[in-house]
Design goal:
The structure holds 2 protein chains of 2 kinds. By secondary structure, chain A is α/β, with parallel strands linked by helices. Chain A folds into 2 domains: about 170 residues, Thiamin diphosphate (ThDP)-binding fold, Pyr/PP domains (Rossmann fold, 3-Layer(aba) Sandwich), CATH 3.40.50; about 130 residues, Rossmann fold, CATH 3.40.50. Helices cover about 40% and strands about 20% of the residues of chain A. In chain A, helix 1 runs parallel beside helix 7, helix 3 packs parallel to helix 5 and helix 8 packs across helix 12. The longest helix of chain A has 27 residues. The termini of chain A are far apart. Chain B has a single domain, classed as Thiamin diphosphate (ThDP)-binding fold, Pyr/PP domains (Rossmann fold, 3-Layer(aba) Sandwich). In chain B, strands 1-2-3-7-6 form a 5-stranded parallel beta sheet, with helices on both faces. A two-stranded antiparallel sheet of chain B has the order 4-5. In chain B, strand 2, helix 7 and strand 3 form a beta-alpha-beta unit. The longest helix of chain B has 21 residues. The N and C termini of chain B lie far apart (about 50 Å). The chains are: A alpha/beta, B alpha/beta. Chains A and B meet through helix 3 and helix 5 of A and helix 6 and helix 7 of B.
């Protein structure tokens, strides 16, 4: 049983802080970790690890390509390797290093992209990351995971520590991420979890934007549209079984993600949906395929139709027109 | 340790090993037919390969993954044809396997595919990555308390890649004296001479300014190569090492030497016979 207080602490730390807090505990036990940063250790939640496990920590400076290469070399010599920096830099600057080392050679590096999505708010598009799911899931052999809250980030840290597969771990949010889980639950990589039941519509979501999806689903329930919410923490491999189970029952599928509507979770779902004989229409909720205006996170969610209220309205309106 | 290495090295054997590798390189490359091979850059690094596999490296072909072992990373993956020839001559796999070079579905493809059992430590071909991976391995081995070495063979054209310099900076910053970078400086890259395409100016000076111990030698003089490696292996002074090996692209086959077009090309039957003749080999009709 996990203490409520611990869950609240995780939530305060956010997904990235909680992830590395748990990793610090695990590394203290095992002493075979190698955590790499590229000069954004503090901002990526690695501060504690850096202080508590200095002999298991490597800062490579502002050089993401080199970080992924070094991470691969360390993985080859048998260490449990986590390379972390802002998601945009780690997935895009070093995309080919990820492809060759982790995809092609299957070296089991855990690539941790912090502050994915648009949490970097006023820092602007150079510091946003809404293309990464598309890029990472197109690389063979990579497992792509994005936890819905800080507690799930802890679960991912534990699973990644024991996994011999290369992984991309997409951490959205910064600190004070909303709690989806208020008690312990069974987490398995590749196995999606229904976090709210419903019969009319279903929201498939990933990352911390799930909290808004959950709120929207409750509003939809009140408006007479019973809505389920499914946590697709593992985007690749996708849990097709759970998708299929909603193909005949739900009247509307909604994909919800803090990512470009091109190439992300929505696309992954649609690729599978296209193979089904019978399935309802799909509403793609995500960031538009554009480099828009920057601003504070909450303002940006509102602008892009991803606040709980906007999500609720968009689903309700489509439901009224189409179904 | 380095002195001991040199004592264990038989220079005559290394010379004849280099000759064998060169013959097998031409045979294997010719065997690929019209697909061709990267002959130029493969021929320029043969003496370096012969010294490493002929006694400088602490390896066991009967136990290719033994720990600790010295590690060789072919960062210039396009030199695969002489690399495979060196591995076969060293005994990692039967010579007949070389006939599979570039065949459909083959494990010995134009760019190496990681296969530790066959002595291929990394999948390479995309340039500029070997040094960083080598650094990671050297860091890992150091943490395990090993006193082995990691050798990374790069091309000089490869030094255009930014990641090479990110790696160089890190190697010195981490004090990795077990890392030995070798630059096969044949002065020609895919589109022309390095001077025309991207002038490296004084490459040794560049590495020195990044904190490396630099040695610049004739990359075809096996005795000099062995002495240099032996000396560097003993030098555990907290600094990474680089050997700038001045070489000739297409070395040993006169019509290929210093010819940019032989960076990648196919041998005709006539050219094959000429090349083999030059290597003192008889070709049966």
């Amino acid at each position: 049983m996990v203490d409520r207080k611990v869950l609240r602490t995780y939530s305060m730390l956010g997904a990235q802080g909680a992830f590395f807090a748990r990793l610090t505990e695990l590394a203290a036990e095992k002493d075979d970790f190698a955590v790499l940063a590229a000069d954004l250790a503090q901002s990526s939640g690695i501060g504690k690890f850096m202080r508590d496990c200095p002999n298991q920590f490597y800062n490579v400076g502002i050089a993401e390509q080199n970080m992924v290469n070094i991470a691969a070399g360390l993985a080859k010599t048998g260490f449990r390797v986590f390379a972390a920096t802002f998601a945009n830099f780690i997935t895009m600057r070093s995309c080919e290093q990820v492809r060759v080392n982790m995809g092609y050679m299957k070296l089991p590096v855990k690539l941790v992209g912090s502050r994915a999505g648009i949490i970097n708010g006023h820092l602007g598009n150079s510091h946003f990351c809404f293309e990464d799911i598309a890029l990472m899931r197109a690389i063979p052999n990579l497992v792509v995971v994005s936890p819905v809250d800080a507690f799930e980030a802890v679960k991912v840290a534990e699973a990644a520590t024991e996994s011999d597969k290369p992984m991309y771990i997409r951490l959205t949010g910064k600190v004070n991420t909303p709690m989806i889980y208020k008690e312990d639950y069974d987490f398995q990589l590749g196995k999606a979890v229904t976090i709210k039941e419903g019969t009319e519509a279903v929201i498939f979501t990933t990352g911390t934007i799930a909290a808004n999806g959950l709120k929207a689903a409750k509003l939809l329930d009140e408006a007479g549209i019973s809505t389920a919410v499914v946590n697709i923490h593992t985007i690749k491999p996708l849990d097709c079984e759970i998708l299929e189970s909603y193909a005949k029952t739900a009247k509307l599928w909604v994909s919800l993600e803090e990512h470009n509507v091109v190439g992300g979770l929505g696309s992954a779902i649609a690729e599978f949906k296209a193979t089904l004989k019978q399935s309802p229409p799909q509403l793609f909720l995500g960031l538009p395929d554009a480099y828009g205006k920057a601003g504070e996170y909450e303002w940006m969610l509102e602008e892009n139709g991803l606040s709980a209220q906007k999500i609720f309205e968009r689903i309700r309106d489509l439901y009224a027109v189409q179904l | 340790m380095g002195g001991l290495r040199l004592a264990a090295v038989n220079l005559d054997k290394i010379k004849s090993l280099a000759e064998r590798i060169r013959v097998e390189t031409i045979k294997t490359g010719y065997g690929a037919g019209r697909k061709g091979a990267h002959f130029g850059g493969a021929l320029s690094c043969i003496e370096l390969l012969a010294c490493l596999y002929g006694g400088i490296m602490d390896i066991d072909v009967n136990n290719p993954t033994k720990e600790p072992r010295d590690v060789f990373l072919l960062s210039k993956g396009h030199a695969s044809v002489s690399f495979y020839a060196a591995l076969a001559c060293a005994g990692y796999f039967p010579m007949t396997d070389l006939q599979e070079f570039e065949a459909d579905g083959s494990e010995l493809s134009a760019h190496p595919i990681m296969n530790e059992a066959k002595g291929v430590e990394l999948s390479t071909g995309s340039l500029g990555m070997g040094i960083g991976t080598g650094i990671g391995m050297a860091l890992g081995y150091r943490r395990k308390g090993y006193d082995n070495h990691v050798f990374v063979l790069m091309g000089d054209g490869e030094c255009d890649e930014g990641a090479v310099w990110e790696g160089s900076m890190a190697a010195a910053s981490f004090g990795l004296d077990s890392l030995v970078v070798i630059v096969d400086k044949n002065s020609i890259q895919s589109d022309g001479t390095t001077k025309e395409i991207m002038d490296l100016l004084d490459l040794g000076e560049k590495f020195a300014s990044f904190g490396f111990d630099v040695r610049e030698i004739d990359g075809h003089d096996t005795e000099k190569i062995c002495h240099t490696f032996s000396e560097l292996l003993e030098l555990r002074n907290g600094k990474p090492k680089v050997v700038i090996a001045n070489t000739i692209k297409g070395k040993g086959i006169s019509f290929m030497e210093n010819k940019p077009e032989w960076h990648h090309s196919a041998l005709s039957e006539k050219q094959y016979k000429e090349a083999m003749q030059e290597l003192g080999q008889e070709v049966s009709e």
